[in-house]
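TA notes, week 10

Several of you asked for a full example with nothing omitted. So below is the full record: structure tokens for the whole chain, then the designed sequence directly under it. When grading your own attempts, check the secondary structure regions first.
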């Protein structure tokens, strides 16, 4: 991937995606409509002790991107990263960092991150999309918790992610 000046037509949607949810999918589809190229950055975030290894998180995101790319005509690339988000944004030439916002609980964390990233790289804008009404309450954390406790997560995650999550939280004996 070549290094170039950040442009507003190129967006970076970063996250841990442990695993990808329908809420993430909604933000990806809606941001893709506004962008020429979208990089979905999958953070290694080893500190969070993810359920899925990085390679599988990338695979599960990638599995869903073909349809969105086709529908929007936007070039979508899924790329793992570690290190600072703004360094990665620069590396991929993104002028926009996209984040989804649910209700008020995300706000404190997101405003801090956007503010700090702006101080570090004022040429990269953070843009927020409000989560759609149907996806307000979905989070990877609760998807994993519900699945672990035997609840039905089929309306919260894409099909392949559902299968893989169930396989991980309830291994066959
Ligand atoms: O899906 P998440 O876990 O809310 O995503 C968080 C993510 C990956 C966007 C955040 O942890 C991040 O930016 N990590 C990279 C390290 C970094 O740049 N930290 C400083 C943020 S101000």
């Amino acid at each position: 991937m070549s290094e170039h000046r950040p442009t507003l037509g190129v967006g970076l949607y970063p996250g841990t995606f442990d695993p990808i949810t329908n809420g993430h999918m909604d933000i990806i589809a809606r941001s893709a409509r506004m962008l020429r190229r979208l990089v979905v950055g999958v953070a290694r975030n080893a500190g969070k002790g993810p359920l899925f290894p990085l390679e599988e998180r990338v695979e599960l995101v990638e599995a869903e991107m073909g349809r969105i790319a086709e529908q929007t005509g936007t070039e979508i690339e899924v790329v793992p990263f570690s290190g600072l988000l703004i360094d990665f944004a620069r590396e991929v030439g993104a002028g926009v960092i996209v984040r989804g916002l649910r209700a008020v609980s995300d706000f404190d964390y997101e405003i801090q991150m956007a503010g700090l990233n702006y101080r570090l790289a004022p040429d990269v804008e953070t843009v927020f999309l409000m989560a759609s009404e149907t996806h307000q309450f979905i989070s990877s954390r609760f998807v994993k918790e519900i699945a672990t406790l035997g609840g039905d997560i089929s309306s919260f995650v894409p099909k392949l992610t559902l299968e893989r999550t169930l396989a991980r939280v309830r291994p066959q004996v």
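The first strand starts at residue 7 and ends at 15. Use that as a sanity check on your answer.
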